Amino acid sequence: MLAQVAGRIFWMSRYLERSESMARMVNAYSQLIMDLPRGAELEWSTLLNIFGVEDTFRSRELYLTEYSVMQFLIARINNNSSLKYSVKKAQENARITRTVLTEEVWETINELQIYVNEFSDRSVSRKNRYLFLDEVVGRCQMVNGLMITNQCRDHVYRFSKVGHLLERIDLNVRTIDTLSYATSGSANRDNAFDTLIWAGMLRSLSTLGMYRRSVGPMVDAQSAINFVVSEETLPRSTIFCLKSIRSAILDLKNNKGLLRVVDSAIRSVGNFNASKMRSKKSQQSIARLYNFSRKFTEEATKTLFLPRQT
Amino acid sequence: MKEQWIKYAPRDFFDELLTSNSNPRIAARALVKYFKGISSEEMEQRANAARLAIRDMGVSFSLSSKGEDKERPWPFDIIPRTIGSQMWNEVALGLKQRTKALNLFIDDIYNSQNILRDGIVPTNVVLDSPNFKTACSGFTPPYKAWANICGTDLVRDETGRFLVLEDNLRVPSGVAYMLENRDVTKRILPELFRNYSIVPVDDYPLKLYQMLASLSPRKIRRPVIVLLTPGIHNSAYFEHAFLAQSMGVELVEGSDLFVDKDNYVYMHTVDGSIKIDVIYRRIDDEYLDPEVFREDSMIGVPGLMRSWKAKKISIANSPGSGVADDKLIYSFVPEIIKYYFKEEPLLPSVPTYKCSDPNELKVVKRNIKNLVVKPTDGAGGKGLLIGPNSTTTERAKFKRLISKSPRKYIAQPTLKLSTSPTYIDQQIKPRHLDLRPFILTGSKSWVTPGGLTRVALKEGSLVVNSSQGGGSKDTWIVDEGT
User: Fold this and answer.
1) Measured between CA atoms, how close is B245 to chain A, in angstroms?
2) pLDDT tens, position by position, B171-221
């Protein structure tokens, strides 16, 4: 497979995963806000923090309101993390690589972009938002399903899988870190609703049902974080994603640097302790996991995606 | 829709949302303002969205008619019903008191029978009841909690006070619909939540799980809990599956379980037999154990009573709890509360005439036109006579029935049940409703914030059961301080 094509498949998948998880997260967060009474609210800035865009938001928008945050996250094309932008980039990458994709995958991604273009502006208000985002999640999942059932286990499959897994790891660490920061400390906070918040977190990562069957219906911060980071059987957990990335790159030539990055991240998960989130060791692990996607992408770009200069 | 709301006339019933001059009550202000402000197209759109959501989520109930089971979509009215949190806290205290007293009563009946000896409740009333199970005598479950899940039906009279209509202590249902109602409302009317502090309801599965876990004979970190269902043809199957999934426990049928020679209960799994600690059973007593009750029961577990009496398994609700789930016992509840607690009941009951008492039987026959006559062992709103709506023939028939089997009937005055604005045929109309909160009792007791509101969709009708064409509403306990 052409080096550049591999890179584009990788990025197409990262953007698809980003679109799906943003849609799901915004819906879960909105549902959560409806249940939290005055005094126990989470800030809208917390949602911005999960996506790492609070600073960008504050530099561009004047008011921090539900509407402006939603508009920024869903419909603003000048925000590199918005849903609209992610879907556009996914489609662009798919278009350039459509010759290596199946027709159904290309069409589904293309139709997703048409849908988001047409409806994102009017889906910012509470009234329309839920169904729109639900539809976006569904279409992204369709692409996943098509890949899994129809794609030969070739390089396309491999780099697509790696791209998805990388984004998942990224969102996991940002969600856990942001939420545990937001629910800690402040004496004015009413901790009685923390269960709702952490259950909402699990829901946003599509893991609440599995958590209930594995751990039980009680959702506390520690167990929830532990499940999402370290549960070996959960396909969305950080450790599962890291190990899957590892096996996906194992038979690539030139993978030594990549393996080193992945193995270091796997060790960080080992050092992570959900019951001591603020400890030095755990904070170090979190920092390493934050940097993982950047380091991996840099290494992959260097060793795999850039056409070799002779 | 503004004119609809202005024209809305509660007449001489207590209306949940509006006062007699059609002004919104405090807890309902933002709600009414919102509904006044939307167009009729918008309203119809929301109602359709609700129907779609319910269809997509698979919220259904089944109705057996003419021998076939039909899955019907859950009939949901989009206008919520509001109750202020202060009022609700008082009601919750009353419910806890009542449930505690009933549990003490059940425990007494199966043990020392002091309340019978002291003549507070006539012996034959209790021991002649088909729900009194001799197999349960001499036993006490953990915390003396027999009816771990109680669904107590409440109504409101024309003064707005809450009255207890009925206690359901065997296998009360409806809680899953309460949870789904809130889910649907959040989806189709999310803007409403902005201006309110509404107490969330979705910690019910957690509270239920904790209560069940507290009953486990084995004191282990994660007791094995199962939900025992009669199967997919049961009208409440949706709820069985919903609750099992929400709690993360196994949904089992009788054939998945067996009782071993050691009197422990096990479930068949691909990894071998696993011992279980607590069964949340949604099967009637009569079908629970063919060794003790109906021997033709195909849905029970042979030997279950053996295991229960040996304290190797806990069952919620305990077999035999139905002895207090009887409209005749209901009429003695105020005395029961006074007997065990030396307190007045915090929550009043609907005044009730016992046909089993010869004097009261005379009163009932004389006033049958103004009374509701109910079979003591009835369910689903069937087999009752609503005096004011009845024909001479129907009244004559009932006079014969109650004379022939007086213990089988009680009578209550027709109540001026409260109403609430309901969306019917694209208009806002008052319809009567009731409320079923759920009370959980294990090592602690807990009351749902609100409960399942059931509304009679037919004008003037007082029958709210879904099997008879009733609908339901989301119930909001509103923090009035906000």
Assistant:
1) 7
2) 898 999 999 999 999 888 888 887 778 898 988 999 999 999 999 999 999
In a domain, B64, yes or no: no
Q: CATH number of the domain that B359 lies in?
A: 3.30.1490.270
DSSP state of A307: P
Share of chain A above pLDDT 90, in %: 68
Where residue A310 falls among pLDDT bands split at 50, 70, 90? very low
Chain A nearest-CA distance from B246, in A, is 7
Q: How far apart are CA B123 and CA B109, in angstroms?
A: 10
CATH number of residue B225's parent domain: 3.40.50.11290
Q: What range defines the domain where residue B367 resides? A: 353-413
Is B182 a domain residue?
no
Instruction: Report pLDDT digits (tens) over A162-195.
Output: 999 999 999 999 999 999 888 876 545 566 678 8
Chain-chain contact of A37 with B197 (C-beta, under 8 angstroms): yes
CB burial of residue A253 (10 Å; 0-12, 13-18, 19+): exposed
B368 and B298: one domain? no
Interface test with A, best of B203, B227, B277 (most A CBs within 10 A): B203
- Torsion from C-alpha of B45, B49, B52, B58, nearest 10 degrees: -150
CB contact under 8 A, B222 and A216: yes
Task: Please say if the pLDDT value at position B461 is more than 80.
Answer: no
Q: B371, B388, B413: which is the final residue of a domain?
A: B413
Cβ atoms of residues B427 and B47 within 8 Å: no
Q: pTM of the full predicted structure?
A: 0.85
In chain B, the residue whose alpha carbon lies closest to the alpha carbon of A211 is: B248
Closest CA of chain A from B6, distance in Å:
25
Q: Per-residue confidence at B17, pLDDT binned at 50, 70, 90?
A: very high
Name which of B190, B479, B482 is nearest A130 (Cβ-Cβ). B190
In chain B, the number of structural domains is: 2
Instruction: Say if CB B335 and CB B322 are below 8 A apart.
Output: no
Answer yes or no: do B360 and B306 share one domain: no
